[in-house]
Amino acid sequence: MIYTYYLDVRQFQDEKLFQEKRERLSPYRQQKLALLKHEKDKNRSLGAGILLDHALSPYGLKERQMEYEFGEWGKPAFKYYPEIHFSLSHSGDYAICSIGDKPVGNDIEGIRQGHLKVADRFFTGEEREWMYQGKNEEEITERMFRIWTMKESFLKVTGRGMSLSLRDFAVCMDEEKQKIHVRHRVDAKYYHMKEYRDIEGYGVSVCCQESKEIAYSMMLAQI
Prior knowledge:
Blueprint: E1 2-8, H1 15-22, H2 27-35, H3 39-56, E2 68-70, E3 76-78, E4 85-91, E5 94-100, E6 104-110, H4 117-122, H5 125-131, H6 137-158, E7 169-174, E8 179-184, E9 191-196, E10 202-209, E11 216-220
Parallel strand pairs: 1-11
Antiparallel strand pairs: 1-5, 2-3, 4-5, 6-10, 7-8, 9-10
């Protein structure tokens, strides 16, 4: 099972709440916060850390107890709990955290008009073809951001990040079967993709490394 939690980070504009929640985090995450200059970036980073702390509670763990290690391309993992996999992302007013017992990557993006040139630069031919099948510019833009979040979540689950070209793999949409799969040559593993439309104006995707289809769940975190 892969669980994804989300929250609105605008609540951390309250300085008292910000400081209270910051104290719940590990020195590593507090240091990340301290290096950020802008309030909105700090609020988003805090939100991601608090969500991770929330997501760890069913395991009887707290984020401030965790020690991190980093993969070859910088993907973070828990040093002493390799069986727990997680991914964090934030955009605009929201942060998300996905967690489970399989390698996972996620991404959230606010849907904004006027970014279609991104597809011409970074998408494969089949991705652009599906995108431009949208009925109007609004739907085409929405499809672009849907693909973008899926591609980002795949980059993150592989641990390769932007060291892997966005044109080296393709997100394949089968709307008849309501299935999404990734065509790639990164490794011999299979990756499942899950989309969420719970947050108005945002696209959310979660990608999991698994040979069979698994269950996903997304919920608003109560912190």
